[in-house]
Design brief:
The chain contains no helices and 11 strands. The protein is mainly β.
């Protein structure tokens, strides 16, 4: 059974930092591209960042580029999202997602591209 478990969310002041983690089990982690999405109250789920299965290629939404960094440790079956210079508009539930792929240097931007999802972790940024 595939499980993705996010952690690291919380309450932080604007300008602060958080590091989210997503631990995967029940799958061969190194064959999966990973992504982070977020959903704010009353809004649709939106793409945040993606990383290919090797960790060598990443892609970011314009709204987080230069502030957030996605990375992965295939030995630990974990993907991370380092979030710096947080803004109140970053407040949302953050989800990690996994997509089986045979391709390296390939990441996915649409939620429908992903096979598995975590339950989410709440990030709240106060002004």
């Amino acid at each position: 059974q595939v499980q993705l478990v996010e952690s690291g969310g919380g309450l932080v002041q604007a300008g602060g930092s958080l590091r989210l983690s997503c631990a995967a089990s029940g799958l061969t982690f190194s064959t999966h591209a990973m992504g982070w999405f977020r959903q704010a109250p009353g809004k649709e789920r939106e793409f945040v960042a993606a990383i290919d299965r090797s960790g060598g290629s990443t892609y970011y939404a314009d709204s987080v580029k230069g502030r957030f960094t996605i990375s992965r440790d295939n030995a630990k079956n974990t993907v991370y999202l380092q979030m710096n210079s947080l803004k109140p508009e970053d407040t949302a539930v953050y989800y990690c997602a996994a997509r089986l792929t045979r391709y390296t240097s390939t990441w996915y931007l649409r939620a429908n591209d992903y096979n598995y999802w975590g339950q989410g972790t709440q990030v709240t940024v106060s002004s």
